[in-house]
Every structure is written in C-alpha cells, then in structure tokens.
Design a protein that fits this description.
Layout lengths: L1 H26 L3 H6 L6 E4 L7 E5 L2 E6 L2 E6 L20 E4 L5 E5 L2 E6 L2 E5 L10 E6 L5 E5 L2 E6 L2 E5 L12 E4 L5 E5 L6 E5 L4 E3 L2 H4 L5 E6 L5 E7 L2 E8 L2 E5 L10 E6 L5 E5 L4 E5 L2 E5 L10 E6 L5 E5 L2 E5 L4
Length: about 325
C-alpha cells in the first residue's frame, strides 16, 4: 500500500512537471504560434527574441539585437535562424550596421563586433575605441564608420579610430544616437535622463543645440528625416517629452496633447505609405494619418508597448523591434 501511494505521488509530481513544461513551451517559443491566431491580417509576432533594441536587413535575413544578444530571423517566414559558426556571445546589443562592403557591425556592452569575410572579431578600448558601453553605429556617406559610446564617439579613418568628446564639441558625453541627414550633416543624441543633449556637426564645426529652448525634453532617443526633408527628434524620459521637428530652420514640437500615444517618444519612422509613426515608451505607437491619428498597441497586434527600432525590407514589409518581441507587418493598418 505504501509503495502504491508513493507511486501515485510520483505520478502526480511527473504530471505537474509535464504541465509546467507545456506551459513554458506555450509562453516562450510556442507563444508565437499561439499569438498568430489573434494577430491582424498580415501581422506576425516573433518571440523570442524578447527585448530588441536594433534591427538591420541583410538580403533575406533580418538581424535583431537586444539584451540577450544577436538573433537572425528569416525575412520571408519569420522563423528564427541559428547564429553563424564562430559568432561570439554578445549581450545588450544596442546598435547594428551593415556597411557598404557587406560587413555586419554589432555595438554591445563589452565591444563592437564585426563580421567580415575572414570571420568575426571584436574591437574594444585596446583597439582605439572609447571606453564601453557601446550604443550606436553609423556609416557616413564618405564611407567612414562611427561608433557611439557612453563616453563619446569614434570615427574610423584609414584604419585608426579618432575619438570625439565634449572637449571637441559634443553637447554631452553619451552618444546614444548618430544620424546623417541628406545634406551630410551629422547629428548626435544623448538620451541620459539628466545629461541629455543634441549636437550638430557639419564636418567643420560642432554646434551644441540649446535643448532647453527647442526640444520638449533634453533626452534624445532617436533622430530621423522624413520624405519632406524635415528632421525629427524623439525626446523624453519617463512621463515627460515629445517629438521635435526642424524644417526650414524652424523648430516645432508635438506632445501627447497633440495626439501622440505617450509623453516619452522612443522612436520615429516613416512607413511604406509615407505615414509617420511616433512610438512611445509605455503607450504604443501613434500613426499620423493626414490630420488624424491611429493608435497601435499590443491590443491591436503590436508585439510590445515600446517600439525601439524599425526596418523595411525589400518586400516593403515593416519590422518593429520592441521590449517584448518583433512584429513583422506585411499589411499596414
């Protein structure tokens, strides 16, 4: 009898463990399939990866980078791909760049890793970079690669890194965002909550923008240029901020009172239909449709509440990296 009771107890334990495993499968790799049943037409939720700060398209592959490292995704199906052989382990990926030579650059907590024809290599302070962490990447139209770090920016020239700091003209030490506009002007944004700022560099002179007078908030999270040529700056921290627009020399702002989803604007991008998306930190994204706004949140199919980066592939498919997965959008709302 005692043996029978022990056997039953063991069975109960094994059954409970099996239920836990099934539940884990449904809420991790399986939650992608489960969510597909409730997705709007043309929307696909990809999870894992979870937190995604950066996206870049390489042919049929979408590279996603975030807290857990680097993840390649099949652009046609949304299925996860294995990492290439020899790829090092990376954490807290903040920036991705595919340069004109086809090299993949990855900015992460401990270095900048480059995939080249010869393999993978990681650059650090010992190679001439500023101290970590590494936050952003850009290849300018002269072909030079820029790296943004918590302590400045570095430009690769003739195989050597040239470091720029506040002593050279940066408004703030941290370089979370680097952007080059159509006139060739470089913009550097710092998103630190108390030491945020915006810098303009035309190749000769550095100009620290008076953030207090022209931006809704000094913390700069993203910079982009729309089809009309206007420069947009995403700003904010916690429950303060908005979007700033520079057009024909004049600055204007949008806030939640104007129709944005939330106070802090995390990123701004333009979809294949030409509409601007303003992504907040906590409240989803607001799409500007002429004089009206359309709000998109996880309730409407978005993977997470905060769109941190976006990319458009050769099919016109929109990829959105969030704090809780990736959305693949082939039919725009």
């Amino acid at each position: 009898m005692r043996f029978a009771r022990a056997f039953v107890a063991l069975g109960v334990v094994l059954l409970a463990a099996a239920l836990v495993l099934v539940t884990m499968r449904l809420t991790t790799a399986g939650d992608t399939l489960a969510a597909r049943a409730t997705m709007p037409a043309g929307w696909l939720l990809i999870r894992p990866p979870y937190e995604v700060s950066a996206l870049v398209i390489e042919g049929e592959t979408v590279w996603a980078g975030g807290s857990d490292g680097l993840q390649p995704i099949d652009g046609a199906t949304g299925r996860l791909l294995p990492l290439p052989e020899g790829a090092p382990h990376m954490r807290y990926v903040r920036g991705l760049l595919l340069d004109t030579a086809g090299n993949l650059w990855v900015a992460h907590a401990s270095g900048v890793t480059v995939r080249e024809p010869a393999g993978w290599r990681t650059l650090t302070e010992a190679d001439g970079l500023p101290p970590p962490r590494y936050l952003s990447l850009l290849q300018d139209r002269d072909g030079a690669v820029w790296v943004g770090a918590e302590t400045g920016a570095a430009r690769l020239v003739d195989g050597r890194w040239r470091i720029y700091t506040t002593a050279d003209g940066l408004a703030r030490p941290s370089v979370d965002v680097i952007f080059q506009d159509r006139d060739g002007v470089l913009w550097f944004g710092a998103s630190h909550p108390t030491e945020g700022g915006l810098t303009r560099h035309d190749g000769r002179t550095w100009q620290a923008i008076d953030a207090e007078s022209v931006l809704p908030h000094a913390s700069v999270n993203d910079i982009m240029q729309d089809a009309q040529g206007a420069i947009w700056v995403s700003t904010g921290y916690a429950r303060r901020g908005g979007a700033a627009r520079l057009f024909e020399g004049a600055w204007t702002s949008l806030t939640r009172e104007d129709g944005l989803a939330g106070e802090r604007v995390r990123s701004i991008f333009q979809d294949p239909l030409g509409r601007l998306w303003f992504a907040s930190e906590y409240d989803g994204a607001a799409i500007r449709k002429e004089e009206s706004w359309l709000l998109i949140t996880p309730r409407q199919g978005l993977a997470g509440w905060e769109v941190k980066d976006s990319a458009i592939d050769s099919r016109g498919v929109l990829w959105l990296g969030t704090e809780n997965g990736v959305s693949r959008v082939s039919e725009l709302p």
